Amino acid sequence: MDKILRLTKPWDYLIIIGVIMASFLPYLLFDTNKNENNRESKDVIAVVKIDGEVVDKFNLSQVSESLEKTYYPQKGKYNIIEVAPGKIRVKEDNSPDQIAVRTGWISRPGEMSICLPHKLIVEILGIEENPLIY
């Protein structure tokens, strides 16, 4: 340990601190940018897809009361979707693992609830005034 301390110079510490600080720079840039984009978002759209095909869209920003809708992706299979103001969830399905049901409410752009056995995806999309590609 003494040998290592003798070999380090004061500038070495400065370089190490600079590298550590620079490593947080991408986090600060992209996190700030993400928050600005979310503030610009006017509408939050929930898209329901079955087997990759869009079957329904809900504007969660304009939903005023809760509603339920049942989808039958295949014979003998069902999914009940519940839509409430600002959020959506898979309330009930007859899949064996119940992952989509246990996911619960989703409300932010980018969140998804997926039921693989039924090939059903509920995805939240944000419509932004100034969309950026990352």
Automatic annotation (TrEMBL):
CDD domains membership: Lin0431_like
Organism superkingdom: Bacteria
UniProt keyword list: Membrane, Transmembrane, Transmembrane helix
One protein family per Pfam: NusG_II
Transmembrane segment boundaries: 12-30
Name of the protein described by the UniProt record: NusG domain II-containing protein
Organism name: Enterococcus gallinarum
Source taxonomy: Bacteria, Bacillati, Bacillota, Bacilli, Lactobacillales
